[in-house]
């Protein structure tokens, strides 16, 4: 399964549309995960993506729910959160602990606007797609993650830049 993971669009859809168009040329996107700070895009995500969508609320989403979600993709348990409540800007220990506690193999989070993939000693993988609209990492390139579930085997993650 081909999964696109984005975060922190902050009400903008220009780069999200570009990324979807680019990835759709290569291979069909089967699922879109948005990790919060949608800021009003939640109502049109299904239309924009053209595939099933799961999202969680971020610190800029007001009363939007849910703030976290546990899903299964090709037999792989996935924990989704924006990350601000787990203070991911300072340390990933709470994120790692919560992912493990939820019984998930992958913990997706956003909030920092910096892409990274961490394979933890505890056996979980923590993945942040960065921000597709407001990047903060060196070079300030909009980023997202493409995940191939490898038919339920070991998932393959790739950080993509626009």
Provide a brief overview of the structure.
It is built from 3 helices and 10 strands; from the N terminus they run βαβαβββαβββββ. With 162 residues, it is an alpha/beta fold. Keywords: Metal-binding.
Provide keyphrases for this structure.
metal ion binding, 162 residues, Calcineurin-like_PHP_lpxH, 5-stranded mixed sheet, metal-binding, 10 strands, alpha/beta, Purple Acid Phosphatase, chain A, domain 2, Phosphoesterase
Describe this structure in words.
The protein is globular and about 35 Å long. The protein has helices at residues 14-26, 45-49, 93-101; strands spanning 2-6, 31-34, 53-55, 68-73, 76-81, 106-108, 115-119, 125-129, 143-148, 156-161. It has three helices and ten strands. The protein has a five-stranded mixed sheet with strand order 3-2-1-9-10. A hairpin with a 2-residue loop joins strand 4 and strand 5 (76-81). It is of the alpha/beta class.
């Amino acid at each position: 399964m081909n999964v696109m993971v984005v975060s922190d669009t902050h009400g903008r859809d220009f780069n999200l549309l570009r990324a979807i168009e680019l990835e759709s040329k290569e291979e069909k996107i089967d699922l879109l995960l948005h990790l919060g700070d949608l800021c009003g895009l939640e109502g049109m995500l299904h239309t924009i993506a053209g595939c099933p969508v799961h999202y969680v609320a971020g610190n800029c989403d007001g009363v939007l729910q849910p703030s976290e979600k546990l899903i299964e993709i090709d037999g792989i348990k996935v924990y989704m959160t924006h990350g601000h409540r787990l203070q991911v800007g300072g340390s990933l220990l709470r994120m790692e602990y919560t992912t493990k506690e939820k019984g998930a193999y992958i913990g997706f989070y956003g909030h920092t606007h910096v892409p990274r993939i961490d394979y933890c000693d505890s056996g979980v993988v923590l993945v942040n797609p960065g921000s597709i609209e407001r990047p903060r990492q060196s070079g300030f390139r909009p980023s997202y993650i493409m995940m191939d579930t490898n038919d339920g085997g070991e998932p393959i993650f790739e950080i993509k830049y626009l």
